[in-house]
Amino acid sequence: xxxTTFLGVNFKNPIIAASGTYGYGRExxxxxxxxxxxxxSVKGTTLLPRSGNKPPRIAETPSxxxxxxxxxxxxVDAFIKNDLPYLRSKDIAxxxxxxxxxxxxxAELARKLDIPGVDIIEVNISCPNIREGGKSFGADPxxxxxxxxxxxxxxxxxxxxxxxxxVTSIVEIAKAVEAAGADALxxxxxxxxxxxxxxxxxPILGNNTGGLSGPAIFPVAVRMVYEASxxxxxxxxxxxxxxxxxxxxxxxxxxxxCVQIGAAIFRDAYAPKKIVDGLGEYCTENGLKNISxxxxxxxxNERDNQW
Amino acid sequence: MEFFQEFCxxxxxxxxxxTIHDIWVHSPKAAAAALPGQFVNIKVKGFFLxxxxxxCEVSSDALRLVFEERGEGTxxxxxxxxxxxxxxxxxxxxxxxxxxxxxxxxxxxxGIGTPPLKFCRNSLNKSAAVLGFxxxxxVIMAGEFANVQVCTDDGSRGHHGNIKKPLEKFLKTGSYExxxxxxxxxxxxxxxxxxxxxxxxxxxxxxxxxxxxVGACLGCTCKTVVGNTASYPRVCKDGPVFxxxxxxxx
Lengths: 307, 250
Ligand SMILES: Cc1cc2nc3c(=O)[nH]c(=O)nc-3n(C[C@H](O)[C@H](O)[C@H](O)COP(=O)(O)OP(=O)(O)OC[C@H]3O[C@@H](n4cnc5c(N)ncnc54)[C@H](O)[C@@H]3O)c2cc1C
Ligand SMILES: Cc1cc2nc3c(=O)[nH]c(=O)nc-3n(C[C@H](O)[C@H](O)[C@H](O)COP(=O)(O)O)c2cc1C
Ligand code: FES
Fold this sequence. Notes:
Chain A is α/β, with parallel strands linked by helices. Chain A is 31% helix and 19% strand. In chain A, a hairpin with a 4-residue loop joins strand 12 (196-197) and strand 13.
């Protein structure tokens, strides 16, 4: 009922842990087994180890949070050596999330990750936290296309390009990335945001700005998934603020073939399991053979200026 | 690290000061697993992120949590009543105070840093405590420690001044194997410097803003330096207690 094939990879259900919120899969095992999920997108990986941004890295906001982790990670070689074997031992689709400063770096990462155990490469062209790299690629159709093409040329795995919502036209970027050869899109990454402590007049985050995630961004995600999925032929993986089975159903109706769950897990560690269970119940209640039947099923209102 | 996310009944709620609350929550699994220095991450109705609170002590089936109203979240949490349910994630932290390694220690607490030291006291054979507060009205839990020296900034109770002199007195006796400290960073710096002077191992509990509390998000990292090597461990999972000589307290 829930199993789905995405980019030729079998997912036992369409629910995937979002990059940066689930570590390398070990942390939540004592609450819910990793294998409850259909897939995991692991913490963003870079060629060399990164120590990330200075603290504080977390700020709260009604219905969400800001983070400025800044891609702290041990580097791709350490990931392959220390974390991938664990993920390989699990019955779960593994998505390697990569970040670089140049198209060549992205390509090099894709080459290194062309190994058993990695099912899909997710190209983070959107991380808003890093001063160099990241941001500029995702906000510019040309740069986004260049990174996509470089990764496609190097990768032996299917390539999913993760878009930033910090753009004027998500459609323009989606089309550029598709034209450059992407196999799928994922969206949305965090929205660049800021909080100020009014007592000290200083931004709460050490990095001054950070990325907003959580339920606060859900409607933005639904709109962007809708727009992007209609504009391209390649499949779309949707995310941004999903907390409940109903949210997952909504973003699938907007056009998402699979769904990533991020910040919701911080509030309720059982959230991914509740969403998986809820999707199963929804299928039963609505007589669906497979949850994929609802993908893109939104019935858009006719626009009629004469009402 | 085994931890749980449980919906726990609040057993009791009292106030230690106008803004410091003392609660016991029924949480058999977390209570059985908890070690000194560990914390729980508590869901507060109406807030997105959980609030990390140290485990003050445990009974066979309950956790004691002592917390101060600092902002909106802890203020809301202060309204909790016996019989209410509380969503508790824990016990968290792979590294607590080494009460298994040392028989005796000097416990140094600054203000709301005092509560987790009670768990240490219960687990050690012998301890002394140096507890620092702003003034007499802010003093909490002083009667719950052995060989305790209270300090107040304004001299309204106990030693007039900060914790340095009383701590040095205990260090000079040479009869304690380690120093365990929890409190504001300036205090921790002073504690580490004194412990180094007397060549006594020192462990300190750190605080950082957290999202997951379990090591998955890298939101809470601090910096440690051993030799020439800097590391950026997670306060939540790799701590919250660190070797005072390695932690960078900036
Ligand atoms: C491991 C650990 C153990 C702790 N143990 C205790 C304890 O036993 N008793 C106690 O009173 N307090 C303790 N604290 C501090 C307590 O977590 C904060 O006072 C509380 O989170 C403040 O929330 P707020 O909504 O009142 O403040 P706000 O400022 O409104 O909170 C906004 C955000 O910042 C975070 N935040 C603000 N101050 C801190 C802080 N000092 N540390 C971590 N996060 C913060 C909040 O969690 C929230 O996400 C501990 C902190 C940590 C990290
Ligand atoms: C703490 C944190 C760290 C993140 N790290 C990454 C990352 O390394 N790479 C990436 O592509 N996205 C990263 N993200 C973005 C999430 O994967 C996701 O796109 C975003 O948070 C929106 O989903 P959500 O609202 O469900 O969290 C991170 C998000 C958070 C909250
Ligand atoms: S709070 Fe997420 S890693 Fe520590």
